[in-house]
Amino acid sequence: MSNEQKEPGSKKASTLSMGMWIAVGVAIGAGMGVALDNIALGLAIGLAIGVATGAAQNQKNKNK
């Protein structure tokens, strides 16, 4: 990895982190949607969880 990706405050690292958490949230939401028999609702909830977790992680990294 280049230095740009390793630095927590860099734009590229925060974008990669946010994308990762969105993907994790969608995966969890898809599982929840299948379990609840409402995939659309599960994906929406998972997306919201992913964005919130990614934003919290980015904020945490900025405060270091």
Descriptive account of the structure:
The protein has 3 helices and no strands. The chain is elongated. Helices cover 84% and strands 0% of the residues. The protein is mostly helical. It has one domain. The protein starts with a helix and ends with a helix. α2 packs antiparallel against α3 (39-62). The longest helix has 26 residues, at 11-36. The model has no long low-confidence stretch (mean pLDDT 84).
List the helices and strands and how they pair.
Layout: H1 3-6, H2 11-36, H3 39-62
Q: Which keywords apply here?
A:
64 residues, single chain, mainly alpha, elongated
Number of H/I helices:
3
Helix content: over 70%
Total number of β-strand segments?
0
Described by strand count, sense and barrel closure, the largest sheet is: none
Poorly predicted ranges (pLDDT <50, ≥5 residues)? none
Radius of gyration: 14 Å
Distance between the termini: 21 Å
Succession of helices and strands:
HHH
Q: What structural class do you assign from the helix and strand content? A: mainly alpha
User: How large a portion of the residues is in β-strands, by DSSP E?
Assistant: under 5%
- Kindly state the mean pLDDT as a whole number? 84
Shape annotation: elongated
| Total domain modules | 1
What is this structure, in a nutshell?
The protein is mostly helical.
